[in-house]
Amino acid sequence: MSEHQRTKDGEQSEGNLLSSFNVSDHHHIVSEAELFVHPRHMKQMKPHQIEGFKFLQKNLLSDEPGGCIMAHAPGFGKTFMIISFIQSFLAKYLNGRPLIILPKGIVSAWKDEFQRWQVQEIPCYDFYSLKANNRSQQLDVLKQRIDQKGILFLGYQQFSKIISDYVNDKIAAACHDILLTVPTLLILDEGHTSRNKESNVLCSLAKIQTPRKVVLSGESSPEHREWSTERFNTSADAKVFFGAIKACGEGISLVGASRLLILDVHMNPSVTRQAIGRAFRPGQTRKVHVYRLVGCDSPEEQHHNVSFGKELTSKIWFEWSECSGNEDFKMKTVNVKDSEVAFWQRSSLRKDVKILYQRTLFLYK
Q1: How far is the C-alpha of 51 from the C-alpha of 152, rounded, in Å?
Q2: Between β-strands 151-155 and 98-102, what pairing exists: parallel, antiparallel or unpaired?
Q3: Alpha-carbon span 90 to 151, nearest angstrom
Q4: DSSP string covering 9-24
Q5: Left if phi > 0, otherwise alpha if psi is -120 to 50, otherwise beta: which for 333?
Q6: Which of these CATH numbers, 3.40.50.720, 3.40.50.300, 3.30.70.1450, 3.40.50.150, describes 222-358?
Q7: What's the pLDDT score for residue 322?
Q8: DSSP-derived secondary structure for 224-256
Q9: For the chain, what is the largest distance between any 2 Cα atoms, rounded to a whole number of angstroms?
Q10: Distance between CA 258 and CA 70 in Å, rounded?
Q11: pLDDT per residue over 288-338, tens digit each?
Q12: What letter would DSSP give residue 338?
């Protein structure tokens, strides 16, 4: 059975329902400059969330809208920012029909957050709380969402099953068509869930017609991390690699690095040493320059001193010998202007440096 034939047969009883909602409207939602953060939300927003709101506007409400990825780390308020954007979006565009696809276990948490931050009454639909277990009941829920503005929550597996399992069933076909054509905004929370290119979930998501798609994720998949490290080590085009100090401390090799810039001050010196060891391997002859940037006269400096004291004590106990005494383990103070390191040659980089320490380490073959 062809897709055209299936759609025609499946819409005989639902034709009026879909025709009453102009699914092409989402191509003409216009002007990114006309959307504003609600004053109540603005009072609570941090600078990075305001920037994220503008980022969503730029990508989703331009003349040629597209998708985007919000990859803020866990705890940075992605959910609140998206809720604020959706409410402003629905206030401006009454024909908006957002669809949020997410792990089933966090549906109630999202609905609670909407209840907490709502500035107008917006219905939130999901099949789980309404006990819509069969296609007929689910179609009733979807009809309600077409008739009035609201937000639909669906789990990844349930969405995939509805999109994949619709053959020879008019009601299932109607559910299939509504989910693919009606949404004007798609939000994918925990977006790394659908990372397998061959999975039914990802194939089903790709069929949704709206161009306005947002992926929320604070994590990267193991496959992507492997690809990133391999490309960094082998490609001449890869210049910079960003990573958390603990995530880059074990299980990966970054031998393509010639400079290592450490911004995190960890109280456990072995964590820092492990991170350095990713770029400089035992037996390696090429130099690796490591820079630790520490805020002067701050708690960060105190943490650094404690961490370095632990490292120094360990070296004195276990690495001291007739050839290596206490002085060899300490760091020497260097005048920034006299430093031969290229990193400090530019005056713009030197001007805020209060003190510079230098130490040379050797890892023996």
Answers
A1: 26
A2: parallel
A3: 10
A4: HHTTTTHHHHHTS-TT
A5: beta
A6: 3.40.50.300
A7: 55
A8: HHHHHHHHHHH-TT-------TTTTSSS---TT
A9: 91
A10: 30
A11: 888 888 888 888 888 888 888 888 787 777 766 655 555 555 667 777 777
A12: G
The CA distance from 158 to 126, in Å, is: 11
Mean pLDDT of 11-25: 47
Place of tokens 């961490």: 307
| Residue 9 in this model has a pLDDT that exceeds 70 | no
CB atoms near residue 92 (< 10 Å): 15
Please state the rounded mean pLDDT for residues 216-220.
Answer: 76
- Give the span between the Cα atoms of 15 and 83, in whole angstroms: 32
- Bridge pairing between strands 185-188 and 259-262: unpaired
Residue with tokens 């639902």: 14
Q: Which residues pair with 194 in a beta bridge?
A: none
What is the architecture of the domain spanning 3-216? 3-Layer(aba) Sandwich (3.40)
Round to whole Å and give the CA distance between 176 and 156: 14
Report pLDDT digits (tens) over 242-252. 887 777 766 77
Q: How many whole angstroms separate alpha carbon 223 and alpha carbon 242?
A: 16
Domain range summary for the chain, segments of one domain joined by +: 3-216, 222-358
CA angle (309, 310, 314) in 5-degree steps: 115
Q: Computed from CA positions of residues 297, 301, 306, 310, in that sequence, does the dihedral angle turn out positive or negative?
A: negative
Q: State the pTM of this model.
A: 0.61
Q: State how far the Cα of 84 lies from the Cα of 208, in Å rounded to an integer.
A: 23
